[in-house]
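Dear colleague,

Thank you for sharing your sequence with our group. We've completed the structure prediction you requested, and as agreed, I am returning the results in plain text so they can be pasted directly into your records. Please verify that the sequence below matches your submission; if there's any discrepancy, let me know and we will rerun it promptly.
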Amino acid sequence: MSLISVPFLILIILGLIVYYDTIHIIYRNVEGEHQWKVLLILNIIFYAWARPLNLVFIFISIVTTWFLTRNPTKTHVIITIVINLGILIVFRYSIFFGIHDLIVPLGISFYTFMTIGYALDCYDKKIKPSDNILHYALFIFYFPQITEGPIGTYESMLPRLLARHDFDIVHIKEGGYRIIKGLFKKLVIAGRLAFYVDTVFAAPEGYGGLTLIVAVFFYAIELYADFSGYMDIACGISWMFGIELKENFNRPYFSRNIPEYWRRWHISLNEWFTAHLFMPAVTAKWNKKAAKAVGKIFPKAKKGTLRTILPTILVWVTTGIWHGAEAVYLGWGIYFAVIMLLSFCTTSYMKGLRKRIHWNDENRLIRIFQTLRTFIIVCLGEVMFRAETLSDAGVIYKKIFTKTRLSGSAIAAALVPFGNGNQAAASVIIVILLLAGLFTVELLQETTEGAFKKHRYFYAGALLVITALFGVAGQSNFMYQAF
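Please find the predicted structure tokens below.
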């Protein structure tokens, strides 16, 4: 069931009515112990709607993880990880086993992260194992976050899910505002850009360098609008139920370096990898031995830097493979591993260089340069994320760097994917206005505290009108649901 569909709207309205029943609204002293059960039922209905058979696999994950972590020994945790990763691998990488028609269960990558994170936290004694399997199931199943995140932690999420939540019209308004913002990003921004991006990336060999640059730029914006739009909708729905979800984006395209960018993009995934893969690898004996060996070759290198090399490669290769079995995702992971390592290894040198040349990071022009540089590096990496094959990515890179011409004919060719005649002209004008508006809003929110909060309901109304006029029908699926 898509978050942008009439059945889902009906489910949410009915769910809210039952969740905030009339007696509970009138008599504030009535206990809200039944509320979490309503959520659990909503979760099951939402998940079963996509494909009832998929319930089998998520139930296997929930039951085995809960049972084994009741006594979180090393053996039990390893078995838990093997079972959950095994199910994920069978579905996500079945092509390597000669199977091509398996339908991947909804949100399997994200709930696998949550189950493994829960098991590891139990083993490390960061949390106490759940005494109630239904409570644990609610944590895994929670429908706003199951398909694309954010990846919640048991410690932070369960108290919010089980707490009593009285009806509050402010929550409904604020949640509705977030939902409208998300719909605008998804249906208008991402929807309008998707046609151009899909057209060009389907046959990159047929387009010039300028057209490919525009397509790569549009894809970066489309990806952000689609993914952050989903998060706005998910957080808005959750807030209507009185439950606050972790923010997953913090205007990443205003980052001034790549490490900062990844701290702002898909925040919960970054935190999961840091806690459960990067830091354990940094402190592992094998990594310390490897760092010591490399240190003999580069005696001037700092120990801390040497210890981050292999963990960084491990994290980014894993991240690439997690996104899919195709070689382009592995290439994307390796690309950002190299960029991150260059950033880590040159930090001290660049700090000294900036001091010697009196480089002021707070200078406005320097800030703009750093932001644009980071955005370009990200866009170049996202070519592999979007390309169908590494061969297509190679074609795009080659044409961008060797076939880009800024001429009247090149500009005219860049307009072709928009359509013909008046259609192309109208599309160009709409896209320019939308991107200018999005940039202005994001910039003001980045630089001005409280921007757009005072009259946000007025803005919500305006966004609804714009979405109704310019939203692209049929854009019900979100890009990251594929992962």
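Summary note from our side: The chain is about 70% helix and 0% strand.

Kind regards,
the structure core
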